[in-house]
From TrEMBL:
Domain Smf/DprA SLOG stretches: 84-289
Protein name, entry field: DNA-protecting protein DprA
Originating gene: dprA
InterPro entries noted in UniProt: DprA, DprA_WH, DrpA_SLOG, RuvA_2-like, WH-like_DNA-bd_sf
Superkingdom in the source lineage: Bacteria
Lineage of the species this protein comes from: Bacteria, Bacillati, Bacillota, Clostridia, Lachnospirales
Amino acid sequence: MKKIYNEDYYMYRLCNIKGIGRASVRKLVDFFGSAYNVSKADINILKKLGILNGRQIDEFAFSMKNKDSIYKYEDMIKNGCNWISINNNNYPERLHNIDDAPLGLYCRGNLPPDDRLSVAIIGSRNCSSYGRRMAYNLAESFAADNIQVISGLAAGIDAAAHRGCLASGGYTYAVLGCGTDVCYPYENLDIYKNIIKTGGVISEYPPNTRPDAWRFPERNRIISGLADIVIVVEAAQRSGAMITVDQALEQNREVMAVPGRADDICSQGCNELIKTGAMVITKPEDIWQCSAAALWKEKNKNNKINKHTNTDIKALNGGNGNKKPVCPTVNLLATEKKLVYSVLCLHPKDTDEIINETGLNVSTVMQTLLLLQLEGCVEEVAKNCYIRIK
């Protein structure tokens, strides 16, 4: 029985013809009405249109006769990678509204749903411990509020954001500058595997595509495009994160920045953004300053938050059906621990400040801090000076 392929397949074929770029494919589909119609187009008509040059027409003719793309498409699906074209109903609505939208997306796992608030967390690969903690804590809190987190799986801020979201049982999506079957950097393989179980790994590049440097600035428009709000945690003035910010502003996305030290090169980009009008975010609750977040909250105030099913949790934690132990949240702490933990932040506080803010005696505060350190929630960064680390 002859197999019948859908519009996604024909768009896949067009997007993988050597030497024919997105702009030309878009023009052809617009003219003929569908990728299927383009694939059946008469070569003489294509020559008269003037969209393709002679060499491109030869490549087109060769590709339409060559059956290799059929086998590649079938193998790709068998190996767990889906292709969703721009004409598919499952293609993210947010991307329809950006310039130069991808004509299709390769995806392992799922695509971010349109009805969930979406936040991109981006920043430096060579980040500080402060930046890493901020990205982790923000993503962890957002996940608890059913906010999905978009990032790029890079080292540093991206990795911390993905980890924070996963630790809270949330949905996170990684947009790659290579094929979805290539984990780059390889050190993030554990994140890559866990993202696929509940969220998704996404790319506009076909499987086996190498992580060439030029692809990453290009993929950044997808990171910002999939988000309602873009948060920059740490970024130098000239960096990939700032390129993403430029694209986010062109896409009418809201931008927030985490402030940093004035003499820290990794925070220069964030501090400049704040000086030029970006909203400041120092704690997760600041997200509700954004109109996109406030609108989403208003729409969903009467709806129950849908958390993962038991099956999802089992998959996320290696198949044992039980969550791996993580740092206790404030709501699970005993009264004294809850109080002490709540007054700590990412900036060091000495014991005198903690005593004054909690109203507890010295003995109780010291014992509570010790317990929190043992549970991995608090770190003593200097003599009698403490920060929260989760």
